[in-house]
């Protein structure tokens, strides 16, 4: 009754089912791995954001690479803004995905070294974006700034191409080594996303606190793939039973009916 399983159609169907089961199991483990990665990253970010502020000089120095554990740490620094050498970072979006600039201002520390400070987002000044936009000034004089420490941006990590031939005082990536060459001064590795002091009239628009990645979604996907893997053999057996039943019905219908003797 099961000879039909040797037909070409059923052999192909069975092979596909056999291949789908381990594939779906592996996809489930991959999603679970992503869940664990995202959960660990969320915990790391939460610990960094909740940690007590420390002086920026205690975590970074000229040429230093900001590590994963140092990223998002709240740091403070004393000095003054140097708006004469301020630049803007092209093609950055606000919370509503409007395209504009990030304002990158050198913050000169008391010892002469420079900390790069991303003061926030401003809208683009026209479609051409060739002229240097009008940038609200930061507080003047000696002040203390507080912000989140971030690693240098690279094309490999961000996917943003570091274009050449840009308009004056416009850049694509925030990179301390490039800025040290431009400024001809020692620049601390990485940069700081400004949190305090608050900008006047809400501009530049502050960059929001990083949110949690949706790790639970990966967990749900993992369970889903494993349920699919379990459903494949069940579905295959259901199709086999239905095929057997249909064949039996067809055979019964094809059998000649016995003739009844005339009375």
Fill in the keyword field for this structure:
single chain, alpha/beta
How would you describe this structure to a colleague?
This protein has 263 residues and is α/β, with parallel strands linked by helices. The protein folds into 2 domains: 3-43 and 217-245; 53-202. It is 36% helix and 21% strand. It has 4 helices and 8 strands. The chain has helices at residues 8-50, 155-158, 176-183, 215-254, and strands spanning 54-55, 74-81, 87-93, 99-109, 114-123, 143-150, 170-171, 191-196. A 5-stranded mixed barrel has the order 2-4-5-8-6. A hairpin with a 5-residue loop joins β3 and β4 (99-109). α1 (8-50) packs antiparallel against α4. The chain is elongated. It starts with 7 loop residues before the first helix and ends in a 9-residue tail after the last helix. InterPro entries: Surf1/Shy1, Surf1/Surf4. It is a multi-pass membrane protein. This is SURF1-like protein. Belongs to the SURF1 family.
């Amino acid at each position: 009754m099961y000879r039909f399983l040797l037909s070409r159609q059923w052999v192909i169907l069975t092979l596909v089912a056999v291949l789908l089961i381990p594939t779906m199991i592996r996809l489930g483990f991959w999603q679970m791995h992503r869940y664990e990665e995202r959960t660990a990253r969320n915990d790391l970010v939460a610990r960094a954001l909740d940690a007590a502020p420390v002086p920026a000089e205690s975590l970074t120095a000229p040429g230093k690479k900001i590590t994963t554990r140092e990223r998002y740490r709240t740091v403070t620094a004393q000095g003054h803004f140097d708006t004469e050498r301020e630049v803007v970072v092209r093609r950055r979006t606000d919370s509503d995905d409007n395209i504009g600039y990030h304002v990158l201002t050198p913050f000169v520390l008391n010892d002469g070294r420079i900390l790069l400070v991303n003061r926030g987002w401003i809208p683009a000044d026209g479609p051409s974006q060739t002229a240097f936009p009008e940038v609200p000034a930061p507080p003047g004089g000696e002040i203390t700034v507080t912000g989140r420490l971030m690693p240098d941006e690279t094309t490999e990590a961000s996917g943003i191409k570091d274009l050449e031939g840009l308009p004056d005082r416009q850049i694509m990536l925030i990179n301390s080594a490039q800025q040290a060459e431009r400024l001809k001064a020692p620049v601390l590795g990485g940069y700081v996303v400004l949190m305090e002091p608050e900008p006047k009239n809400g501009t530049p628009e502050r960059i929001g606190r990083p949110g949690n990645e949706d790790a639970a979604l990966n967990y749900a996907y993992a369970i889903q793939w494993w349920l699919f893997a379990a459903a494949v053999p069940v579905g295959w057996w259901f199709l086999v039973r239905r095929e057997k039943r249909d064949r039996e019905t067809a055979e019964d219908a094809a059998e000649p009916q016995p003739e009844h003797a005339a009375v």
